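Session log. Operator J.P. requested a structure for one protein chain; no other inputs attached. Running the standard single-chain path with token output.
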Amino acid sequence: MQQITTITALQTYRKTCQGSVGFVPTMGALHQGHLSLVQAAQQDNDHVLVSIFVNPTQFNQASDLAKYPNTLAQDLQQLEAAGVDAVFLPDFALLYPDDYAYQVTEKALSTQFCGAHRPGHFDGVLTVVMKLLNLVSATHAYFGEKDYQQLRLIRGMVDAFFITTEIVACPIIREADGLAMSSRNLRLSAIERKIAPQLYATLVADTSLSAKREQLSAIGFAVDYLAVLDDRLLAAASLGEIRLIDNVPYNDRGAKA
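Structure written below.
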């Protein structure tokens, strides 16, 4: 597995790629959810490139950024074992030579749901994804459906700016107890980890939205939002300091597992 740390090396690597290239952008702290994206990319493409970059511009709280798990050595081992062809490991100076003076902003969907509670978050997400897509020039790029609002915004950005990379959505990967896999799960206390699966259980229960909100609050979640977007029921709720998001298929008759 080739490790790439400069734009010149990335460009050189891309010139060696014959056929399609699948790209999986990550912030590290990899779990089976990330590896499922890698597997999907491998099925669809001749080459697979993964990036690892903890993007500071999408964190609206410095403390959240400081606590983000750093498991780079383990991440690289997992990617090599999975058969990834190359990994791109940029730093801030490489991706932001402008020091974030130029930003990508969406003015409608990004102000709702997570955007309403995390000012500037999606500006940071869209900006770094735009930079990575431009640098990698992949045939396909893979994103998980757990961050459904993010997925919608990235697809909209790609369409708006005529980016040729096809965005591929991949299903949510869950733990055996239903909790959606997330790097943030590593920060849950033992007690919080036992409570956390109730977020998914509540979303798929045959109850009204108001009843779901009441149930989550009663369990101990601080609910940011519980809302429908397209055919998905989206939720964000915190246990202590840890903010969890999830979504499930939904229609006006209730949620479906």
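Operator note: The first helix runs from residue 7 to 16.
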